[in-house]
TrEMBL record, chain A:
Transmembrane segments: 86-103, 124-146, 166-189
Organism: Flavilitoribacter nigricans (strain ATCC 23147 / DSM 23189 / NBRC 102662 / NCIMB 1420 / SS-2)
Keyword set, alphabetical order: Membrane, Transmembrane, Transmembrane helix
The protein, known as: Uncharacterized protein
Automatic annotation (TrEMBL), chain B:
Provenance organism: Flavilitoribacter nigricans (strain ATCC 23147 / DSM 23189 / NBRC 102662 / NCIMB 1420 / SS-2)
Highest taxon of the lineage: Bacteria
Short name of any one Pfam family annotated for the protein: PadR
Transmembrane segment boundaries: none
All copies of domain Transcription regulator PadR N-terminal, residue ranges: 17-89
InterPro entries from the UniProt entry: Tscrpt_reg_PadR_N, WH-like_DNA-bd_sf, WH_DNA-bd_sf
The protein's name: PadR family transcriptional regulator
Length: 199, 115
């Protein structure tokens, strides 16, 4: 009997699937499907008396080489690999820009609140402005969460729209909350891109 | 165990998958196992090759997929679409014709019947 710390079957399955999906273009359903395949195959092999390591090795052999399967997938669902890299380059650039904007926006907000305190009409406009920003931010984040849960990669339209949005938000005044929304969106995209298969 | 050429396997994969799905909805792993059972273990695909094929068939609208909970996990099941049934009927005719041509050329009795 193999000691459980010697071989982590779930980790081995996850690593192999990640090798197939090296470009991280599979949606959640596809990842789950492959995970389900290996789980069932290894379970049937361990039921025959193989240990987990042996069962995984046999499953992998039966499944085929990761590179070959990856190429077969790519024929079915081609990926704009260069575009994905460019967008993440843009995101890094805008996040640095955001850091600068964040400091100046916070400074402006504090200053304007201090000066305008007591002037009800102006405060109302300020409130509406930020309320609108909250609505836009909420909508944007809801969309991104929904979108990435179904397909964790970008379409051509998004490859165009996301850098444009970042550019607009970073160089058009000091809408602090909208800029925050863009930053949160980028962080979310980055985190979801690294999504692992649930155990 | 017989060894089939890559080309023959590639050409027969889609009709085989569609035929299995015509018998009833199924999921990836079980489709592979059915192929092995039906072929008496002679047709051994690289199992991973099935999934891109399923993705392609779904993209082309020949099959559809849905999720089903089984034994605490959610499985992706595939079902043949009306377009898939029609496509399969056409493919059956093609294979039948080819079978008859080859049978004549090789002087053997054609033996491809459909239920």
């Amino acid at each position: 009997m193999e000691h459980p710390t010697e071989f982590d079957l779930q980790l081995a399955i996850n690593n192999f699937i990640r090798e197939i999906d090296r470009r991280q273009v599979f949606d959640r359903d596809q990842l789950d499907e492959l995970y389900d395949h290996f789980t069932e195959e290894t379970a049937s092999l361990t039921a025959l008396g193989l240990n987990e390591r042996e069962a995984f090795t046999v499953s992998k052999l039966r499944f085929g080489e990761a590179a070959v399967i990856r190429r077969e997938y790519e024929r079915v669902q081609p990926v704009d690999g260069a575009g994905q890299k460019i967008i993440f380059g843009f995101m890094g650039f805008f996040m640095i820009g955001f850091g600068y904007s964040l400091v100046s926006a916070a400074h402006q907000l504090v200053t304007s609140l201090y000066r305008r305190f007591g002037e009800t009409r102006e405060m109302l406009f300020l409130f509406l402005d930020y309320f609108l920003s909250f609505l836009i931010m909420g909508g944007l984040l809801t969309y991104i969460v929904y979108r990435l849960r179904t397909k964790p990669y970008f379409t051509r339209l998004e490859l165009f729209a996301i850098p444009l949005l970042g550019f607009f938000m970073n160089f058009s005044g000091n809408r602090f909350l909208l800029q925050l929304a863009v930053l949160l969106t980028y962080i979310l995209i980055y985190r979801e891109r690294k999504t692992l298969i649930p155990a | 165990m017989k060894s089939y050429s890559k080309d023959l396997i590639a050409a027969s994969t889609i009709p085989i998958v569609l035929s299995i799905l015509q018998r009833g909805d199924n999921y990836g792993y079980r489709i592979i196992k059915e192929v092995q059972t039906i072929s008496g273990g002679e047709l051994n695909w690289k199992e991973g090759s099935l999934y891109p094929v399923l993705a392609k068939l779904e993209q082309n609208g020949l099959i559809t997929s849905y999720k089903k909970k089984e034994n605490g996990r959610t499985r992706k099941y595939y079902a043949i679409h009306q377009d898939g049934i029609k496509f399969l009927a056409d493919v059956k005719n093609e294979w039948s014709s080819i079978n008859q041509i080859l049978a004549k050329l090789w002087n053997i009795q054609p033996n491809l019947t459909f239920s």
